[in-house]
Design brief:
Two copies of one chain form a homodimer.
Chain A (H helix, E strand, L loop, with lengths): L1 E2 L2 E4 L3 H12 L4 E4 L11 E3 L5 E3 L10 H9 L4 E3 L5 E6 L2 E5 L8 H18 L13 H5 L3 H8 L3 H15 L8 H10 L3 H5 L8 E3 L4 H11 L3 E2 L4 E7 L2 E6 L2 E5 L1 E4 L3 H4 L3 E3 L4 H7 L7 E8 L3 H4 L2 E7 L4 E6 L8 E8 L1 H7 L3 H16 L8 E6 L18 H5 L10 E3 L12 H20 L19
Parallel strand pairs in A: 1-13, 2-3, 2-14, 3-10, 7-17, 11-15, 14-21
Antiparallel strand pairs in A: 4-5, 6-9, 7-8, 11-12, 12-13, 16-19, 16-20, 17-18, 18-19
Chain lengths: ~475, ~475
């Protein structure tokens, strides 16, 4: 049987980062990836004009220092997200344009959103991001949905509409599908609501020349034969001194394992012995978001001629967010759009043609009749991807953080957990994935380098045998 | 390769019922069961006194006609749940006794519980149990947790304490972990709150001589070689005209498949092609409840001497429900107890000895010092069971019914779904499991008997290929 020090399950940013760190420190590593590509929830797609467009995660912000450092280390360059021209809001049947720096809301609603933002950020500031379940009000905040909090907090329809757009825009789920505690954790993890929302200097500040997936590809190139594609892992047999990882192409023994998958997918592997009750139940209740991302190629970025940025948010249309997604130095124009949360679920059962028609209709509403004449339409339903089963990430509904928080990243014997859902900083983003990979690699390096070399790092917490 | 008409995955009550129905109608069936026993969430355990005690589901009520008919058909007999003597309530540090027919609450709290029961049952009465998501207020009711509804509905502490006991007692989860819509559906599915709570003429009316698992064992006996134990299914390859089911011991081809597992476990199988997005996402968000059931054997049912029924509910102790569980014609006495919801999660990480000490301490508080001297202590943590991963059933948090309801039982090509979570009547109970088995068998018999014999019954709703 093949034998290494560490098997990493999953060649997304988290798994590849962990693998690279461990290889750098002299460990023998094998990365097993189910797909025939690396990159996980980032994915590039070649358009007919020769440019590659991002079908998954794509934006970077200045405080996302870990992923930016990784990109730079591999010689990759960023460029600013297009941010010139007026932005738009679709509501009450109208599409209204606003100056680039103006709030898209009425003064009353903007003030109300500002007030609620202040309240939320004050609550969020009390959280320890490494253990949000330990906050003094954690039980209270985890006991209600963000939607219920919101309904009690304001009756301004426009402000409510804003938040009901904001939540799917960051979770690909609805306000009633995340707990208030999770909402607070998530905004604090990313540095605040303005940071999450922002383009310039925010989470959508810049893009990578060639596409975000190039980071994973560069990592994989540097790892060479360490990364094995088309090898879905299905079973992990584990003991105090090591594990056997079984995949479709064979089996590998290792002293440690990193499972670098979202919790929902990690729960679908078989473990022998079976995982402890709390870890298992955690994986039953961190569902992935629902999002279908589209990229539409046009002859030119015609919206710019009209002084438009290409950025529209809609409080009432199924394609609730649209944005200029023209690649670096492209002579063409690209609009990206997102069906999120309930909208994604509704259109996911339609035919491609029907869904395309809805998307194009929305873009024509936002940007005029030229938007109805695309060169190409590309889409990716992340819920249909067998090895992602949703994006942007796993969300925590009521009660999950407080009941199962520690189980998110605490190792089970020789098995360690990575993935952006386990990150304290920039949870849910590419940067969080990279941070989680570093953290898992640090755990394993410490364990394999300790005098008790090979003994489990974390306490093994299997269920106690009962008297039966 | 072995070939049958129908493979049934899982030999719980749902799977065995479906198998028996299909065999009766002349189909060739194979049931593949992961465990080395049948019965799923029912399980008998032999005590040292020669009596078998139920470690899982055990009670029957008069409206649970399908499971009772099945038991009777196999010559099994029921006997009344012990219901004589005073009942008790532990609250505010005291254990208070009440007459058997008296409410255990103060008059004010009893009136408030009555008022809320009326409100809830009036709402529940508007639901179509086959499609609770279609109710006119479904979005509203699915958008909040039962806990949030409750907090807005009353500020009577004792009434709140009652509901916060009631919810774990039926869901093994907390009030903030189920949506109001799910709560309403569930109480309507079982015939109302009094029915769910009740002993005589209620859901805890009677037991089966020898234990509830005997129904599954009798079904399995009658099916003979049709049932294969120790054969965990891991993969279902399916096409329009049939499927190949792979298990640890081999593979079987079939024209139809019944997956008779709770949604959380059904989601852990591999499907090729992968399941449609909505069906997959459903399985990510119907987590199993958390319950550790104990049975404590005593020399005699000493509590009866003191005029006690043996039935205690506690608003403040970890073992929140205790009940006389003495088997039919036993000369000894047995008390059953339940750690549920948050309590189960908290004690699940303790050692057996520590958990046993907590349980016995609670029983001694309720029933006196004799309770501290048991002959035997038995427990079963259903969350630790690899092939159940929780009890009593899968619960629906906010947003799940309205986003994914139809996917619960709608076939995907040749794959049909059974299990108590798919039942309209007595969902979550043994009776619901049996009903779901009949329903799945009916679907398949109709499909295999139709002129388009072998063609899929339901529309195949795979994700449409995208333009990429």
């Amino acid at each position: 049987m093949e034998s290494v020090d560490v098997v990493v399950v999953g060649a997304g940013l988290a798994g590849l980062t962990a693998a690279a760190d461990l290889v750098d420190r002299g460990h023998r590593v094998l990365v097993l990836e189910a797909r025939d590509r690396v990159g996980g929830r980032t994915a590039g797609k070649l358009m007919s004009d020769g440019h590659t467009i991002e079908m998954g995660g794509q934006w970077f912000g200045p405080t996302q220092t870990e992923v930016l450092a990784l990109a730079e280390a591999h010689g990759l360059k960023t460029y600013p997200q297009h941010d010139e021209g007026d932005q738009q809001l679709a509501w009450n049947g109208k599409v209204t344009r606003f100056g680039n720096d103006d709030p898209r809301l009425s003064p009353e609603a903007a003030a109300e959103v500002g007030r609620l933002t202040g309240e939320l950020e004050a609550m969020a500031a009390t959280l320890d991001l490494e253990q949000p379940w330990s906050a003094s009000q954690a039980d209270e905040w985890d006991g209600i949905t963000f939607g219920s909090w919101l309904r009690a907090a304001t009756d301004n329809d426009e402000a409510l509409a804003f938040w009901r757009l904001f939540v799917p825009a960051i979770f690909a789920a609805e306000a009633h599908e995340v707990s208030l505690l999770h909402f607070l954790f998530y905004i604090a993890s990313g540095g605040g609501i303005a940071m999450l929302l922002g383009t310039r200097d925010g989470a959508q500040d810049c893009r990578l020349v060639g596409g975000s997936h190039l980071i994973s590809e560069a990592l994989a190139d540097s790892l060479g034969a360490v990364v094995r594609l088309g090898s879905p892992v299905h079973t992990i047999e584990h003991a105090a001194d090591g594990a056997i990882v079984r995949h479709d192409g064979g089996e590998v023994s290792a002293r440690r394992v990193v499972v670098a998958l979202a919790p929902a997918l990690a729960g679908r592997l078989r473990y022998a012995p079976a995982l402890p009750p709390l870890r298992d139940q955690l994986t039953q209740q961190v569902p992935m978001g629902s999002v279908i991302k589209i990229n539409v190629l046009y002859e030119r970025p015609f919206w710019r001629d009209a002084g438009l940025k290409g950025s529209t948010m809609s409080f009432e249309d199924p394609l609730s967010v649209a944005v200029d997604n023209t690649p670096f130095e492209s002579e063409h124009g690209v609009l990206a759009g997102f069906f999120e949360g309930v909208h994604a679920r509704r259109v996911s059962t339609l035919t491609l043609e029907a869904r395309r028609a809805i998307a194009i209709e929305c873009l024509a509403k936002y940007f005029g009749s030229e938007a109805a004449e695309p060169l190409e339409y590309h889409e990716m339903d992340w819920s249909a991807e067998e090895y992602s089963r949703g994006c942007y990430g796993g969300r925590f509904g009521t009660g999950v953080w407080t009941a199962y928080g520690p189980q998110l990243s605490e190792p089970v014997g020789v098995i360690h957990w990575a993935g952006t859902e386990t990150a304290a900083i920039w949870n849910g983003y590419m940067d969080g994935a990279v941070r989680s990979g570093h953290r898992a690699a640090d755990e394993i390096h410490a364990a394999l380098s300790s005098p008790t070399n090979g003994r489990p790092l974390g306490a093994v917490r299997f269920g106690q045998p009962s008297a039966r």
